[in-house]
Amino acid sequence: MFSPGKIFLITGANKGIDFEIAKQLATQFKGYHILLGSRDAERGAKAAETLQKAGLSVEALIIDVIDDKSIAAAAETVKSKFGRLDVLINNSGIVTDSLNGDPPTRAQFEAGFAVNVFGAAATTEAFIPLLEKSAAARLVFISSELGSLAWRADPEARFNFVGIPIYRSTKAAMNMFALSYAHQFRAKGWKVNIHNPGWTITDLNNNTATGTVEDAAKGAVRLATLGDDGETATYTEKEGLLPW
């Protein structure tokens, strides 16, 4: 059985912020092995090949967070090949809101929650048995400042524009169940944290943002590699703590 220093799984990692997280982890921490989660086998393989050519210890793992069979198969692959998982970074996410002002539909709500909430929860549950075999399990949930209830209640808060209620709701819901895991595993020493990468140039916003993926990935990398004295149950961005 392959036994490198630590095993990481990042969902939705064939592009964007999580691809950069994988790159920074594998570059900065020699001995770490990064699994690039991707629902598309070809895209995942190409992403892994890009990093492998740079001499980094990564490989692709097929996982579709809205397909329970795919999640179970991914967990079984990790179990048979590595016997454990040390770090899970949940990043798979979509925006299903209409951006032209149309009212949200039931189908849009269901699609958004299926990926951003139910997918992240189902993935976490499937990998808990493998995380329990780690000496220092870490869970990182990639969220958004748009999930802040405190800021949504404040008309003067940043990014408090009218719109995208589905995406905002999914991130607020994800924050809550992430805190539930932090509470559940606190006594075992797990570090479970939520991170906002900021307004970053990705396909999620049609590349209309201003932040770089390099900058956005740094906070998640830090949380994924916390020591025993590191924090848990936090909601952060690069500037510090976010209001719930």
TrEMBL record:
Gene Ontology molecular function, alphabetical: oxidoreductase activity, acting on the CH-OH group of donors, NAD or NADP as acceptor
Keywords, alphabetical: NADP, Oxidoreductase
Keyword Membrane among record annotations: no
InterPro entries, per the entry: CBR1-like, NAD(P)-bd_dom_sf, SDR_fam
CDD domains in UniProt: carb_red_PTCR-like_SDR_c
Leader peptide range in chain numbering: none
Pfam families assigned to the protein according to its UniProt record, in alphabetical order: adh_short
Family: Belongs to the short-chain dehydrogenases/reductases (SDR) family.
PANTHER family the UniProt entry points to: (+)-NEOMENTHOL DEHYDROGENASE, SHORT-CHAIN DEHYDROGENASE_REDUCTASE
Protein name in UniProt: Uncharacterized protein
Species this protein is from: Mycena pura
